[in-house]
Amino acid sequence: MTHSNGSISLVGETGRQQELVSEKLNLSGMRCAACVQLIEFRVRQLPGISSFKINPAIHRAEISWNPDLLTLKRILAAITDLGYGALPTHQSPDALEQKENKRALWRLFVAGFAMMQVMMYAFPAYLVPVPQIDGDLTPDLDKLLKLASMIITVPVIGFSASSFFSSAWRDLKNRHIGMDVPVSLGILLTFFASVWATFHGGAVYFDSAIMFVFLLLGARLIESKVQKRTTVALSILTQLSPAMAQRFIAYPQVQMEMVDAAVLQAGDYLMVTAGDHIPADGVVISGDSSCDEALMTGESLPVSKTVGSLVLAGSVNIHGALVMQAKQVGGATQLSALIGMMESASLEKPPLVLLADKHASRFLIIILLLALISGLVWWQIDPDRALWIAISIIVVTCPCALSLATPGVMSAAVGILARNGVLLAKSKAIQAMASATHIVFDKTGTLTMGRMQVKEVLAADDLSMGVNAAIAMALAGKSSHPVSKAIADYLVRSQPGKEVTGLSKVREVPGAGIEAEFEGKIYRLGSVEFVSTLHAQEMKIPSGFAGQTLTVLANEYGCLLWFALDDALRDDAIEAIRNLKNKGKKILLLSGDRLEVVNEVAAQCDIQDAHAGLSPAGKYEIVRKLQADGATVVMVGDGMNDGPVLALADVSVAMGQGAPISQSRSDVLLMSNRLTDLDFGMAVASKAYRLIRENLAWAVLYNLLAIPAAMCGWLEPWHAALGMSLSSLIVVLNALRLYLLPQPVTQSIYLTQD
């Protein structure tokens, strides 16, 4: 059980209750996937750790531990001992970030200023071999320029490049090779070899060392800015929960107290003034206003709130003051679930990316071996060039490109989709959606609004209408299916005051209906097929009811009530289906409804492949067969009967107003309930996956060209420095192209941030 103070109660094998404390940490200093793996490995070795997971997209970690065995101070020390920064999220890292940003700018400035000076001193040496220029660079002047270059380079090595050295030393201490190990090795080898050449003769490459540091610092500074840009939606969501709330001491008395939102409990009465965030999920007790729920539901327009309206934690109260009663608080709110699912999605990686990350660290080791072997070979050919060629191989390689740009693309995709009402619960859906061949739709609540209405009721016996209606109302009240809700609402209005109690052996059959025993008789409320198996009489549909969605109440002796219902097609269903078909997707409609009703919806949406009268097992079998034939299937469903097929599909998409079971088994959640947003989500997934493949392809191609060129001696160290920095920068900037994708105008006018 999770408490409001962040602790979790567990019962151990001995039966003694243990309290696990949970906390979120802000981390700093991480550069790549290898950093994440190192921190997670070290922290999980601590005694008492229950769980520890890092989200590299927003540099945040979630941790749970047993306070009897471990303290938070020791956990933070374990992380800082590795050379990384760690702070609890309630301690604002803004001052630390500003200090680090200022230091990064100073490092870049020192490296840039020194680079200009050293380039000026190196220029005469580059001119000497040119026969058309009568150079007068004497040996004494040449040595003086080299000494000046060395002196200017010292601050760059000692200050600007210090972050590379500290990270490399940290990795080596932990028996781990990260990206900063070859970077630091290249810088130090270039510097000390140039120092040797300064006093003993030979070419110096102080300019190459400084240029390498300057370009790498500049690239990383840009990468950090890009990272903040791509994670803006995640950051906005994590900041939506208000820290404080106004709670009534004894409602309806007007005395209130300001309390920490984390200590709120279900049932508390709260005051929310205009402009404040809603602190919990709940219901409006008094007041009249409107709320901006854009980041939770994707609804761009403010939603009117009156007495009895539901309000969501994190939404903004725009106009008047509201008094609300909290129903869900803390981690149980929809906002908390949304944040958790988004952070989980941004942490996961598509299979292609996992393959690249797996080989990134091995790639570093291979590069170091190639540099060593090439240096030994060139030592036999031309000893003066051997060291510089080895350095060029180390510097020119781009292991960071294999891991750098992918998190940017993924977090950008998750953020863009969330801002448009599409919640990505599992990021593996990106790759599957991008390669999807078939999209399968349910009908009720998916292509249609799901707000069924009873148009007409026919009773087999007018004399027993009241009793049968009461039984039907009792049965319908036991189900959350849209049809059951519609029947219950209709009967409550048309047959007020008629209630039956004593139903027993209640059983709901997904996709069919509900059954119960009353006064010794078995009653069923559901589809014609489900009800007809209860008795031996031939089921005859009343005249005038053909072609309509029907639900029947019956017992062993025959049909008692006929309900004719209708459900309006979603406004954007036709447009969404057309757009998906234009993208080359094959569309199927699978429904448990009657053939005439399904065919009518299929005709409206121009769907040629439609199947009616299907049980959940029937839907499951059709999707399984498609997958067996090599199809990648996206299943869009709503309601409990879609649970099994949603679990089977390559990508499962649930509507925001759907049954909880369908949402819990889904990879994607359409919080906006707009089918056109599904089309937009498919476009984002295709673009994101294409960018990931482009980045990985570029990283591989670059290294396939650059490494042989460096081994052959065609690249100077400064060429290598330029190539390495530009290669990393290219894949990062390429990730930003995802923002060029045209987006629907559904973002909040109150919460949108650039």
Please give a structural write-up.
By secondary structure, the chain is an alpha+beta fold. Among the domains are: 7-91, Alpha-Beta Plaits, CATH 3.30.70.100; 101-225; 265-329, Calcium-transporting ATPase, cytoplasmic transduction domain A, CATH 2.70.150; 422-449 and 569-673, HAD superfamily/HAD-like (Rossmann fold, 3-Layer(aba) Sandwich), CATH 3.40.50; 453-566, Calcium-transporting ATPase, cytoplasmic domain N (3-Layer(aba) Sandwich), CATH 3.40.1110. Helices cover 49% and strands 19% of the residues. The strands form five sheets. Strands 15-27-26-25-16-23-24 form a seven-stranded mixed sheet, with helices on both faces. Strand 3 and strand 4 form a beta hairpin. The radius of gyration is 33 Å and the shape is elongated. The model is unreliable at 1-17 and 746-754 (pLDDT under 50).
List keywords for this structure.
754 residues, alpha+beta, Alpha-Beta Plaits, Calcium-transporting ATPase, cytoplasmic transduction domain A, six-stranded antiparallel β-sheet, 19% strand, elongated, disordered C terminus
The total count of strands amounts to 27
Query: Would you state the CATH class of the domain at 422-449 and 569-673?
Result: Alpha Beta
Mean pLDDT equals 77
The CATH architecture of the domain at 422-449 and 569-673 comes to 3-Layer(aba) Sandwich
Biggest sheet strand order reads 15-27-26-25-16-23-24
| Form type | elongated
Fraction in helix: 40-55%
The share of residues in extended strands comes to 15-25%
SS-based class: alpha+beta
Q: Unreliable runs, pLDDT <50, ≥5 residues?
A: 1-17, 746-754
User: Which fold name fills CATH's third level, the topology of the domain at 422-449 and 569-673?
Assistant: Rossmann fold
Which superfamily, in CATH terms, is the homologous superfamily of the domain at 422-449 and 569-673? HAD superfamily/HAD-like
Report on the biggest sheet.
Answer: 7 strands, mixed
Separation, N- and C-terminal Cα atoms: 38 Å
